Amino acid sequence: MNASPSHRPHPAEWTETQSLLPSAERDLPAGRHQFHKEQMMARIHEDLRTSSPTPATSPVAPVKRSNPFLRRTILLPAAAFALAGAVAGGLALTGGGTDGGRTALATGPALTTRIGAADAKGAPQLLERISLAAADTSAPTPRKGQYIYIASKVADTHIKTVGDKSEVVSDELHSRQVWNSLDGRDGWLIEAGETSDKGITLKSDVPFSGAYNALAALPTDPDALLQRIYRASDANRDPEVPRDQAAFVAIGDLLFESYPPAEVGAALYKAAAKIPGVVAVDDAVDATGRHGVAIARENPADGERTEWIFDKKTLRFLGERIVVVKATAGNPLKVGTVTGTSAITERAVVDAAKQVPGQVG
């Protein structure tokens, strides 16, 4: 969720460059580029979910969504991907025009941070430790009829354009709660500033591809899993988006608002270790200010680095952020700008949509 009139928009999670989208698309409202990027990633995830992906021409009833800023819970039909094809790969953008209805949240200056040192040699060892931590879990196994509940805090920086005036602004840190059924066909979303206090339904005939059942069906052999991720992303990404970046972002999206079985989560981290360009970062901060270590990859097209942040002691996944780490011709945002940041505050299994952990009935 960030960008500029000339910079391609931004995925929680969120980056992209001018060369990736035609100039005519720059007038889309703020947030729309991210919206289309998420559609593209949803398509990639759907291809991962099934060994017989739905052809791009297959008619699928659209999912009615009231709001363009839904993140990884969105899954729209392939027919809606005409623009999205230019966005897969983990870009952080928002176009010109109006601010897409986010005026209430766009209240502050650009989010900035200290850039942690990257270490390519340390990435495999750190990912091996993270994988072992993910495999060694006492998390309960969901039962049929239950829901996965994820609570988080999110914020972003983007270019806001009103009339002929553009400025870099940040959306205030706000809460987000998502419920998804195990099969991904039913759910609920409450996000401050994006939905009403009561939220909106995520019920659909098109299942959420990051649902528990879909993740449980993925191979647990890291090589086989990575091959599957590459096949899915290669079939859907724009040729100008580096395939390794698209694969890295796809894995991150599968890990973010989800509840993968322990063996699948461990395999995803081992698969990420095999992607060229992945680095370890000595210090990164999530949306709530928690410091941790990170696994990251820079998109060379726009100089933005996607970071998965983990607790330094337990190696528990904390959140994700995208940071401008290198100045590029196509990205007007300054080095150190945080284009998107998130923090997982709670992850649990509950008995019903809209039920919070600890609540009875």
**Low-confidence segments, ≥5 residues, pLDDT <50?**
1-41, 49-103
**How confident is the prediction overall: mean pLDDT?**
75
Instruction: Give me the Rg, rounded.
Output: 18 Å
Q: Indicate the structural class.
A: alpha+beta
Plain-language structure description:
Mean pLDDT is 75; it is low at 1-41 and 49-103. Helix content is 21%, strand content 25%. Helix 4 (222-236) crosses helix 5, helix 4 (222-236) packs across helix 6 and helix 5 (243-255) runs antiparallel to helix 6 (262-272). Strands 1, 2, 3, 4, 5, 6, 7, 8, 9, 10 and 11 form an eleven-stranded antiparallel sheet that branches. By secondary structure, it is an alpha+beta fold.
Task: Record keyword descriptors for this entry.
single chain, 361 residues, alpha+beta, 6 helices, 25% strand, globular
